[in-house]
Specification:
The chain contains 4 helices and 17 strands. The chain is of the alpha+beta class. The strands form 3 sheets. Strands 1, 2, 3, 6, 7, 8, 9 and 10 form an 8-stranded antiparallel β-sheet that branches. Strands 11, 12, 13, 14, 15, 16 and 17 form a 7-stranded mixed β-sheet that branches. The protein is elongated.
Length: about 300
């Protein structure tokens, strides 16, 4: 049986990493949760999904979250992509999680695994390895039967509570990531032309490559938010901006950055749009939002627009 610990010090795929963790408790059991942010990977990790598709679960910018409680017989690992989107929940069936070192608990792997891949279903992995372990005497018949029972219980739990667990794990993982992230105050413009608003496409060489966004950028020291927005629009689109009221404020945690975004209603007061940084720009209506892939930080904004909220 393999023995693994939460720090995963021998995991060579994560060439450069950042980590954060904390003690937790549930029903009187002590536990620990942690994240590994992969700043550089030796190679992508591609796995199969329950419905036969291929999925990358580890690469540069990805996050792995782990959670374990002392004595429990499953160990949870969750994978997130570079946008902070949950890719997979992965449960190792264990011989009982050990907290000899509370800061780096570990487990003996009992072969069987249960996964939930959002959009692709629930699956059970490595039953063949478990069967072989029984044949060779690496596990007893009692251990074998118990592993299968834990596997069934985990599948049933995911069928009943999988969606809620995905939300819970995402919140916990992003909170840990945020605790070690640099933070940026960012402004953006919701530029209206009648019933249409302007969106811009990020260049391929930058983070969140080729995703669509609202034009804007970071607030520099000594600037007001309105001043920063006018400067960014001149630098990126060569236009002058009439800045209006705040449409909304959102906070989003990326694996590499926590963004506090203020979106202003605005209109063009001078100049013609020239793409000085972005690779494309379009005027769209709220009904067309679904045709474009936006930066995750804009998700809450897009919901408001799709539901009919409009700036003044």
């Amino acid at each position: 049986m393999k023995y693994r610990t939460m720090r995963r010090d021998t995991w060579r795929r994560a060439v450069k990493r950042r980590t954060a963790g904390r003690a937790i408790e549930r029903n009187g059991l002590r536990g620990r949760e942690s994240v590994i942010v992969i700043d550089e990977a030796s190679a992508p990790l591609i796995v199969g999904t329950p419905d036969g598709k291929k999925l990358c679960v580890a690469d540069k910018g990805y996050v792995w979250y782990q959670r374990a409680f002392e004595g429990e017989e499953t160990w949870l690992t969750a994978a997130f992509d570079e946008k902070g989107v949950l890719l997979q929940l992965y449960f190792d069936v264990t011989a009982g999680n050990e907290f000899v070192d509370p800061d780096d608990p570990g487990f003996r792997d009992l072969y069987l695994d249960v996964i939930l891949t959002p959009g692709h279903g629930i699956g059970v992995l490595d039953r063949d390895e478990l069967d072989e372990a029984l044949r060779t005497g690496d596990v007893t018949k009692a251990e074998y039967d118990r592993v299968l029972e834990v596997g069934r219980e985990t599948v049933e739990m995911l069928e009943r509570h999988g969606k809620a667990l995905c939300r819970e794990v995402t919140a916990a993982a992003m909170e840990l990531v945020e605790s070690m992230n640099p933070r940026a105050d960012v402004v953006a413009a919701l530029i209206w032309d009648g019933d249409r608003f302007l969106i811009c496409r990020r260049p391929a060489h930058k983070a969140r490559a080729l995703l669509w966004e609202f034009v804007g950028g970071k607030v520099e020291k000594g600037e007001t938010k309105e001043e920063a927005l006018r400067r960014e629009c001149r630098e990126e689109l060569d236009i002058d901006l009439a800045v209006g009221t705040v449409f909304c404020e959102v906070t989003h945690v990326y694996p590499d950055l926590t963004v506090r975004l203020t979106l202003f209603n605005a209109s063009i007061s001078g100049g013609e749009i020239r793409l000085l940084e972005h690779v494309d720009a379009k005027w769209i209506t709220p009904a067309e939002i679904g045709e474009y892939e936006f930066c995750p930080a804009d998700r809450e904004i897009l919901i408001k627009l799709a539901e009919g909220e409009k700036g003044e």
